[in-house]
Write the structure tokens for this entry.
Amino acid sequence: MSTTPTDLKYAATHEWVRLEGDDTVCVGITDYAQDSLGDVVFVELPEVGAHTVARAEIAVVESVKAASDIYAPLSGEVTAVNEALDENPQLLNDAPYGDGWIFRLRVENISELDALLAADAYLLQCEDD
């Protein structure tokens, strides 16, 4: 099974969330997701300043196999995007939990984190996929 850090939270739609401050999170796609997609060739990033709600489409990842929507795991405002993905979308494959992050979000309601999965629950879901 893929690498799944235990200090992160996970959405059922294969995004990970790392709490970085009182109300700020970093978001990317999981190792399982990038492995399923294959070689990533393009990432459509969200706009800085864009407002989103949990479970809304926010970005798109295109691979040699398919295009896949990325969903906002929490509601809030996009505060940063990983512009390195414009030049090197392969970062999503090479370092999905590191340099391959997609965006940062200022969260409106931090209690929404409680609805996300712990690593072990996420892994169980992946086994059922």
The two ends are 12 Å apart (CA to CA).
